[in-house]
UniProtKB/TrEMBL annotation:
Residues 151-216 form the HTH luxR-type domain. The modification 4-aspartylphosphate is found at residue 58. One of its GO terms (molecular function) is DNA binding. Residues 5-123 form the Response regulatory domain. This is Response regulator transcription factor. Keywords: DNA-binding, Phosphoprotein, Transcription, Transcription regulation. Pfam families: GerE (PF00196), Response_reg (PF00072). GO terms for biological process: phosphorelay signal transduction system; regulation of DNA-templated transcription.
Length: 224
């Protein structure tokens, strides 16, 4: 089993140390970077020999908060997966963070098993959406006023095959699994994924799933 390297940035010492003990207890995972704010995390990323695979990121931190840290990580380390750990549960706030391109959003009161599940999911399939997030997204879609955007017709620009691949991506199938399901090569699947990212302006797979939900190409209930 390949070791999953995890970084954590949280200014609450007790929570951070507790989370480190929990993650280090998961099979095949290890905390490799510990920071109490976003600035220290970025400094550590710039000097480490081996980048982590996943960052567990608090939102409210001194020096550099989670939102600004997320933007800088995307700019400098686009392959790094971000899981937000937060006490903030307002629907608009949760969906805004997902729009920024984080790979998962967890409330700090989740069970350790869900943290493990989220870490493995973002490594394997690039995203993890739990019931709390999907509920927030659904509520946001219900109250948000519809408006005409240039992107309104984007779904119509997708080919039938691209929609098929998008649907399988949303079901958390990996590229090899999608290739086997559609009897095509992994390279072909990667090509469709690249086209989807370009057409939807999504940052990552999490963004593609958000696109599918917001454009009614996917029922959020199908992800549970």
């Amino acid at each position: 089993m390949t070791m999953i390297r995890v970084a954590i940035a949280d200014d609450q010492v007790l929570f951070r140390k507790g989370m480190m003990a929990i993650v280090n207890g998961f099979d095949g995972m290890q905390i490799t970077i510990e920071a109490d704010n976003g600035r220290i995390l970025l400094d550590a990323l710039a000097t480490t020999d081996t980048l982590p695979d996943v960052v567990l990121l608090d939102l409210s931190m001194p020096e550099l908060n989670g939102v600004e840290t997320t933007k800088l990580i995307h700019k400098n380390y686009p392959a790094l997966k971000i899981i937000i750990l937060s006490v903030y549960g307002e629907d608009r706030f949760v969906t805004h963070l997902m729009d920024l391109g984080v790979n998962a959003y967890l409330f700090k009161n989740v069970e350790p098993l869900e943290v493990e599940r989220a870490i493995r999911a973002v490594v394997e399939t690039d995203f993890y959406f739990n019931e709390a997030f999907l509920s927030a997204l659904k509520n946001r879609m219900l109250v948000k006023k519809p408006r005409r955007l240039l992107t309104d017709d984007l779904p119509a620009t997708l080919t039938a095959r691209e929609i098929e691949v998008l649907n399988l991506i949303c079901k958390q199938l990996t590229a090899p699994e999608i290739a086997e399901r559609l009897s095509v090569s992994i390279r072909t699947v990667d090509g469709h994924r690249a086209n989807l990212l370009e057409k939807t302006n999504a940052r990552n797979t999490a963004g593609l799933v958000l696109f599918a939900i917001k454009n009614r190409l996917l029922d959020p209930a199908d992800l549970l």
